[in-house]
Design goal:
alpha/beta; Beta-carbonic Anhydrase, Chain A; five-stranded mixed sheet; 8 helices; 5 strands; 14% strand
């Protein structure tokens, strides 16, 4: 477990340093740099982390972590939920790209989480597939803070991934994969990880 934990802590530290640079307005990448890197990665990719996050337009992992093209394998879906398609994508990244770190990242003001707490008459059928996953994952207690709801959802999606994916579960059990979760705060641009 030590090697996996040390590697995971190195990745988390790397991501937090990038987040700090971005908050301070000292990003080390510009669009010209990103174009050049993209050209270098035409034939291969070696991302170090899978980021499962919401599809919200205010949250772009490559920007908030000040990461270069090719560093992050980003999967986006409303509410950062686990589905069979998401699981297949994660399994592909773990097996074919040898990624050993997964981050499930929620964010403040998540519309998918907020919809769960609306009266039934205001919920729309088009959102039902995602809403049903969220409703299974977080308690119906409306007294929870926005932050608690977001973190509960991220934690429960992590547990769901391990439960439903034999590949992920085996990699975790063999200390070849680490899964952490966290929250992105829109108000101050800061990411906080919950490390298990």
């Amino acid at each position: 477990m030590k090697k996996s934990n040390n590697q995971s802590l190195d990745i988390i530290s790397h991501l937090l340093k990038g987040n700090s640079r971005w908050i301070k307005g000292k990003s080390k990448y510009d669009f010209n740099t990103l174009k050049e890197t993209t050209k270098q990665l035409i034939d291969h990719q070696t991302p170090h982390t899978i980021i499962l996050t919401c599809s919200d337009s205010r949250l772009v992992p490559e920007i908030i972590f000040d990461s270069n093209i090719g560093e992050l394998f980003t999967i986006r879906i409303a509410g950062n939920i686990i589905s069979k398609e998401i699981i297949s994508t994660i399994e592909f990244a773990c097996l074919e790209l040898s990624i050993r770190q997964i981050i499930i990242l929620g964010h403040e003001k998540c519309g998918a989480i907020a919809i769960k707490y609306l009266p039934y008459s205001l919920k729309h059928n088009y959102f039902e597939p995602i809403l049903s996953k969220i409703e299974m994952m977080i308690p119906g207690d409306n007294n929870l803070s926005d932050r608690e709801k977001i973190l509960d959802n991220a934690k429960n999606q992590k547990e769901e991934l391990v439960k439903l994916s034999t590949i992920v579960r085996e990699l975790v059990d063999e200390n070849k994969l680490k899964i952490d979760y966290g929250i992105y705060e829109l108000n101050n641009f800061k990411v906080e990880f919950i490390l298990d």
